UniProtKB/TrEMBL annotation:
Designated name of the protein: Uncharacterized protein
Native source organism of the sequence: Alishewanella maricola
Length: 68
């Protein structure tokens, strides 16, 4: 099921929203993408070498950030 859910996630913003939704469902919290985004940008930079200053909500993982 997880593979099907993430198949249609293309942008950083979509991924941050997806993470917020999953956390909220499992923890009963009310996070939104803006709460998740700083940590996501930190992980992209530290683990994948992406300059977080150049990442926008509409940045696409494959086309813009060279993930494949």
């Amino acid at each position: 099921m997880l593979d099907q859910e993430v198949t249609n996630i293309y942008t950083v913003g979509e991924f941050a929203s997806y993470i917020a939704t999953k956390v909220n469902e499992s923890k009963g919290t009310s996070f939104d993408y803006a709460d998740i985004l700083p940590k996501l940008l930190e992980v992209l930079e530290s683990d994948y070498g992406v300059d977080k200053g150049k990442v926008a909500l509409n940045s696409r993982f494959v086309q813009d950030l060279d993930f494949d």
